[in-house]
Amino acid sequence: MHIHIENDASAPRALHLSVEQLQLQLDVHPPLRSHFTLSENRDPAQTADFLARCDILWSGRKLALDQFSTPRLGWVQVMSAGVEQWLAHWPQGVTLTNASGVHGDKGAEFILMAALMFNFGIPGFLQDQAQRVWRPTFGGCARGKIVLLLGVGGIGAAAATLLTAQGYRVIGVTRSGQCDANVARCIRIDALDEVLPQVDVVVSTLPLTPQTRNLFDRRRLDLLTARAGIVIVGRADVFDYSAMREKLNVGELAGAVLDVYPQEPLPADDPLWHTPGVVMTPHCSLDDHSAYLAGCLDVFIDNLARFRHGQPLRNQVDPARGY
Amino acid sequence: MHIHIENDASAPRALHLSVEQLQLQLDVHPPLRSHFTLSENRDPAQTADFLARCDILWSGRKLALDQFSTPRLGWVQVMSAGVEQWLAHWPQGVTLTNASGVHGDKGAEFILMAALMFNFGIPGFLQDQAQRVWRPTFGGCARGKIVLLLGVGGIGAAAATLLTAQGYRVIGVTRSGQCDANVARCIRIDALDEVLPQVDVVVSTLPLTPQTRNLFDRRRLDLLTARAGIVIVGRADVFDYSAMREKLNVGELAGAVLDVYPQEPLPADDPLWHTPGVVMTPHCSLDDHSAYLAGCLDVFIDNLARFRHGQPLRNQVDPARGY
């Protein structure tokens, strides 16, 4: 069987997988050692040729797969967690696995940091600092505050563990209303409106699907109290950023710690840059380049073994569900 | 025996201890119930009269005790952790106990937040945001990074527990080189210089004493690398703020998360307000007014029981040592 590696020439070298690296990993797993042939490409002009003759594709860049002839292709492993751009061009019958879980450790630390920043009023104090205003407030501990986790996948579950250990009361939100994560309570996404008024911090790790797009519209944002802070590390289009910005401008939210944006890089003239209470990181806070490739490779090698034994793959995306 | 409560009329009411509150606490402790008479005052013109006839003083405001006649006074419980202003006017032979430990829970959470903020480059991203610059960096997890805790008292020990649980490698610094806290290593204060070049985050909870004043002078700041961040929640005068500001201005430190200042409130014309990499809170991040009085009262009631039984008191300050 043939595995083709498609790298993104514009990505940092730390995110390129070489034939040698992959072969090294196969070599230490005897059942995989001599079962696969390998190729690698980073020249988009050559991509069609490689896709025409591979059985398995590892891809470090987004491809509109239905634009290619892929007669032998059975499975694609991608390096991202979000896959909405892949699914817009997905050939029927091909298995898709993503990098869910690889962002967990760093993502959970970022979410814990953001939740604590709200507890200590940092978004407000940053505004005071900019205006040279000394205005202390003597609030309580983070312990006991309520964090709503929208999505309890790889990142959400890791965050739930850290937040719970820190004494936060964590409410998970999933499609089914069930999850295995370390949460005090898990609710169905359609029960969301009832809990929003109680929440201290809303954290979204949600993927973008037809069901999640614009889930946090103006109406739902209005159900939050002015003490609530918002943390968005999943897909941006789950939220109405304009409505969120309007509410921040009038002090109807405690702030927003954002890593993702409707357009990236965020245009220099976007009013969000200087919206009060916004703390921005440029879509990098969940990615650890020193560990990212190795994390994806772990998923892939595990999946190759499962694939060889005809077992269900890890991180398999359901195209109908969208994640 | 007579206990006098001296409140600070200018402090928030949540920090005033009333005779009724104290009596309620005594009532639930049978050995203390009818042993003490109580008084309360918040008028500075009356203070001398009350001090002249009390055996025990609870004080919510700073007093130059050696300016008063205190013939019966044997013990003072104060509501702050730092006591350098008391010790400058201390009558010989009087026992002093402080509020050490009451700031632990909230202080530890603040320190954890600040350490995580450095890991995620927040001080740098805030500068980029102010200039509308999109400049991602893909660093690693906080886990494994080194935090140096200057002082491992009530706040430091609580912080050590949270940081260690989060995977930080914590080095404690104490006078003796020993501590009971949850640290990977504890060193003597005079071994400080050797570890400074390795440190990711320096956290100071140190009190102000002749030994700690200006401990972090220009020379010691220069031993830190440009990736190091500084968190100061103890006394400000342990650090040379001017030297720190100069280093921040030229990018020789990753940033500073500060709750305390050489002068408070910080004057509006102080250049620190707009120094790059500085995140400021106005001396409020360790104090939880909803729990503070109760925390101090716990120490005091425990100490009253010890006092009655002739046992050593908790949180007893050594005037020679300064904390």
Automatic annotation (TrEMBL), chains A, B:
Keywords: Membrane, NAD, Oxidoreductase, Transmembrane, Transmembrane helix
Superkingdom: Bacteria
Transmembrane segments: 110-126, 146-165
Residues annotated as domain D-isomer specific 2-hydroxyacid dehydrogenase NAD-binding: 115-285
Matches recorded under InterPro entries: D-isomer_DH_NAD-bd, NAD(P)-bd_dom_sf
The protein, known as: D-2-hydroxyacid dehydrogenase
Organism: Pantoea leporis
Organism placement in taxonomy: Bacteria, Pseudomonadati, Pseudomonadota, Gammaproteobacteria, Enterobacterales
